[in-house]
# Entry
Amino acid sequence: MKDNISRRKFIKMMGVGAIATGAGLVGCKNSSDPGSITDDYKKQVEPPVGKMTFRVNPKTNDKISLLGYGMMRLPNKKVSGSMDGEEEIDQEMVNKLVDYAIEHGVNYFDTSPAYCQGFSEASTGIALHRHPRDSYFVATKLSNFSPQTQSREASIEMYHNSMKFLQVDYIDYYLLHAIGGGGMDELNSRYIDNGMLDYLLNEREAGRIRNLGFSYHGDIEVFDYLLSMNDKYKWDFVQIELNYLDWDYANEINDRNTDARYLYAELQKRNIPAVIMEPLLGGRLATLPQFLVSRLKKRDPEKSVASWAFRYAGTPKGVLTVLSGMTYMEHLKDNLLSYSPLVPLNDEEQQFLYEDIAKEIVGLETIPCNDCKYCMPCPYGIDIPGIFVHYNKCKNEGRIPLETMAEEYSKRRREYLIGLDRAVPKMRQADHCIGCGQCEPHCPQRIRIPQELHRISEFVENLKRHPFVSNKIDDNN
# Structure
């Protein structure tokens, strides 16, 4: 298999029904993006070798690195000779990142047939296959989101393709992917009615799956149901979203979500290890408003903003590993410094994060978008995450033009509109949303996406038409 894989060739290799559609197509990152490396990393030191903190899976005695590599945001590069700006995974850089991670103790690598627009598993397989099979654990998922992949035959094909592209004959950690998004009906159609859960249980019995679990986003009824069936299914692990904002405020931010405190406690009751996703909420907890950054830096000037979130996510004893989608070497090194070894947060530090940081973030009333791109592609071409990211960035920096009498109103209005046009082409902006709702079921954060797009569209239209009229968004609508 070649080191660099074009999208066209890869999809042809995958075959019909083997790749999830828009439900989980996650874009990779361009490694030349200058905005990706912050001042936090300019004086970065080399992380030590041999100091990684490990946790033991009580179900299987696997010794797992506390830092897990999420192969979801792999670096991209331009395809040589392409006239249309086509990109491909930068396999050479992926290999370097994986090699460095393994050298520093990382042994858990998490991917999916849906990540990086279908390329992640093959890229991960290329990078890991260069290392002894017993030196790493690989996790992947049954990402049968679209109806055409939910038949028993198509789902089994997806499962076997994962092994083929990962170049393995067994999978260490296999997940039902993002259960809960469509409620019990979707759980039944994806895993129960087609017999796939029974099939996977048999695969675990045969040893081709070493650990079986699920990742959770969405309807709490589904989470509770699967845990209530633990005596039958004997879950080896469960993947949940946990960070210092979602611990107590996930439901307050969005009444369709569940606080991480509850999810973690339910796993602890059953002695099921937790794999943690979204420790940074898609980067939101690494790019805080400056007044919150100042509070963190006052406590520890040498530590990055992100390190607080990683130490928080790694502190609970029931956490097996914390996943991070590390596109850049600087991010990998910073996370290694946080976990080599982990210095757990004490009670006072955790209270500081709750009271002085998390409460303030909730008060900002941003849109809880993690830029995961699960909502994409929009059938009408709207850049949903791009619109939300621009709005949140302006909100976090206090640059939303709200009150016409404010001294900076005209300047902020101009900045917002010009910045929006630069970030999102006009034909892909919120005013083109027709409210079809195709995006909403796929959002892990359960955002009411059409409602938010229409709200932003109205806000932008008011800015354009009435530059001297108050344009405050009522975030409670």
